[in-house]
Write a structure and sequence with these properties.
Layout lengths: L2 H11 L16 E5 L2 E4 L3 E5 L2 H4 L8 H11 L13 H13 L4 E7 L2 H18 L7 E5 L8 H5 L19 E3 L9 H15 L3 E6 L3 E2 L5 E2 L4 H12 L2 E5 L23 E4 L11 E6 H8 L16 H16 L2 H12 L9 E5 L2 E5 L6 H10 L2 E2 L6 E4 L7 H17 L1
Parallel strand pairs: 3-15, 5-6, 5-7, 7-10, 10-11
Antiparallel strand pairs: 1-2, 2-3, 4-12, 8-9, 11-12, 13-14, 14-16
Enzyme class: transferase
Pfam family, one: Aminotran_3
Catalytic activity: (8S)-8-amino-7-oxononanoate + S-adenosyl-L-methionine = S-adenosyl-4-methylsulfanyl-2-oxobutanoate + (7R,8S)-7,8-diammoniononanoate
Length: 419
Amino acid sequence: MSPEHLLAFDREHLWHPYTSMTAPAPTRLVTGASGSRITLDGVGDVVDGMASWWSAIHGYRHPALDDAVRRQLETMAHVMFGGLTHEPAVELAARLVDLTPAGLEHVFLADSGSVSVEVAMKMALQYQRGTGRPERTRFLTVRGGYHGDTFDCMSVCDPDGGMHTMWSAVLPEQVFGERPPRLDTGVDAWAAGFRALAAEHAGRLAGLIVEPLLQGAGGMHPYPARCLPVFREVADEHGLVLIFDEIATGFGRTGTLFAADAAGVTPDVMCVGKALTGGYLSLAATLCTGEVARGLSASDSGVLMHGPTFMGNPLACAVASASLDLLSTGDWAGDVRRINAGLQALHRIDALDVRVLGAVGVVQLDHDVDVAKATEAALAEGVWLRPFRDLIYTMPPYVCSDDDIARICAGIAAAAEVA
């Protein structure tokens, strides 16, 4: 089909994330991608300031990742994981156990980030059942969070300003503490309130789930590393399973390999995804400690009650290991520092707030963004951005050059001016 026919069929029949089918938002046709750039029909090459929703950290068509997929195809693309195993899954699990905080030694390979969070929440619930506390069925979290679009995940997303408020009447009722403060000076007061809330509800809580250091789609809100030990202490005091959702923050995005590393805190359960495969295929993982594994195994089922059809997909596992190879042999930390330095130019933009953490740059306006106008303005600067609510932000590939980052900053400035 011609580009015109493709876009027409898309408009009539294809749903896109958070868009209407009867009044669809404009879409652009991608005809190729390489390095830090995607090619748009009628526009040409533009820098992808979003890294395909934060996943394509090595850029597009990376030779090592392409080769990993080709080599795996010579053996098998997929095989069921029930009763079977294979080298790509075992190798990836070994790598993850080695890279993540010490003590996370059991790996569940899920097929998306949202599913990995569902699995984490099931782990906490089954752990409480297995340790004789089946009445503990609720979760403690903080406002401003986002953990995915599936059902239990929605229940621990922000209940008021989040994307899932329309479902509040049918979602499980969770316990929400105040959002962590932006500045270190506010941590003590916040911690006191959070500890008091946990103590008030402890008898019905199974787990505590947060995005460490950076709340992503809930508002791109960074907070001090000093908050992470507070979460650990509260979980220990009340017998809660501490879950760190590192879908967005894992694999270097905030400046340490995992956000948990910034404070030396080991959660009981950790979720990773997005950048796990370098943006090539959908794959996530839920890791847990031996204590959690033993506890849930003592529950009435005796087994973890989850098993996706495409669990441990060999293609995804193979390219994920190749992506981890690139991280371990390259200078991802240096790249993130370099990107961070370039993103400091965002502070020159006149806006309500500007914040930069690791390879993340956020400009917050005092009004909701006109996405169509902002997108066009960024494209005129040669940059693809996807603003939401009152935020224009970037989480670019680590392979971006200094010129790419300067262009992204120019694109954000242009978008902010018209939005």
